[in-house]
Each structure stands twice: as C-alpha cells, then as structure tokens.
Amino acid sequence: MLKLIPFGFVFMILPESIPLLVMYVPGAVPSTCLKESQVIKQREKLDKIRQNMSKNVIMSADSIEGISPEDFLNPRTFAKTAKAYNYDFELTRIDRAHLSSYCCFMGLSGWGTQGILKKRLNKHLDYLFEDDKLIVKEGIETLPLPELQQAAEERGIRSINANGDSLRRAIKYWIAVTAMDPPVSRGLLVFSRMFLLNANYK
C-alpha cells in the first residue's frame, strides 16, 4: 500500500516507464504487480545479503560474552538471554550503522538517519505484531504456501527451498518468541534472526 501512491503517480505521468520500473527497480513496485519470477529473484538477492550478515554475526559471536546461536534455539534459553541483554538491544541504544544492518536484514531500506531507521524498523515490527494476531486468529494451518513464504520473508525467515511444514514451524516459533512476557526487545529480536537464518525448527 505504501508503494501504491508513488507508483500511481508514475502510472499517470509516465505510463510508458512502467515496464522499465518493473524490470530494473522491482522494489519500488507493489508486489501484486510483480511476476513470480521477479519475486523469486528479489528473495534470492535478499537471501545473499542475509547469509553474509548471518555468517559475520555467528563468526563474531565469540566476542559477545554469553551469546551464542544455541541461546536462540528454544523459547526457554531465548528468555534467559533476553533477560540478560534486553536493555543493551533497545533500539534507542543501537547506533545508526547497526540499525541500518537490521533494516537491511528485514528487507527494508538501510538509508537514513538513526531516527529514520529506528522509526522504519519500529513501523515494520508493529505491522508484524498485528499480522501475528491475525495469523493466530485465522490459524497458521489455513495459510497456503505463497502466503507462508511472504510471512516468513517479512519476519527474516528464509523461505527459499522451504516446504510448508518447515515454514509453519518457523513462524510458530517467531510468534512464541514475540509473545513472551516480559517482551523481547526489538533489537534483540532482529539480532536473533541473524543467528536463526538457517535454523532447523522442530
């Protein structure tokens, strides 16, 4: 919907440019206007970025005392990690460079000031939390594969070559973590996705 207004202006003023826009700047086009092959290409491009970020975070995990990939693999250990590090991962305490990385990992633009990046990430997470409520209400088992893939990608979950069952398990885990009380700080939630990018949810 956010892309629809600028896309509408382009459509009214320069309609002949739409094919070029779809071909060369697909990120500026509403998803309903993209072919399946273009959506897959976008996801593959984002997956390369995420894999690189995940690799770097896991390699540097030794320098962060007390945090390892195993700490995020189940809600119990995740809760203990959150209790120890929630404060350090509040978005207000994260610098611009890391906020930019967090936005990029979640499929958002990484440009802007620290305040803009924080607002962008907060807005995306607010949307996801509301969407989580709808998924719980309707039942995740009712979602077809394309919707599962879209929901997974929006949450920093890898959907490439994943079947419906594995995506449902991953999304259920996300919902379980975001429903914790006290809540996981937003920065730690995104940071954990980098550790869990290639996780096998059981």
TrEMBL record:
Xref: InterPro entries: LETM1-like_RBD, LETM1/MDM38-like
PANTHER family referenced in this protein's UniProt entry, alphabetically: LEUCINE ZIPPER-EF-HAND CONTAINING TRANSMEMBRANE PROTEIN, MITOCHONDRIAL PROTON_CALCIUM EXCHANGER PROTEIN
Entry's localization field: Mitochondrion inner membrane
Record's protein name: LETM1-like protein-domain-containing protein
Region forming the signal peptide: 1-19
Keyword Signal part of the UniProt annotation: yes
Domain Letm1 RBD, residue spans: 1-202
Organism for this UniProt entry: Phycomyces blakesleeanus
Protein's membrane topology: Single-pass membrane protein
Pfam families named in the record: LETM1_RBD (PF07766)
Record's keyword terms, sorted: Membrane, Mitochondrion, Mitochondrion inner membrane, Signal, Transmembrane, Transmembrane helix
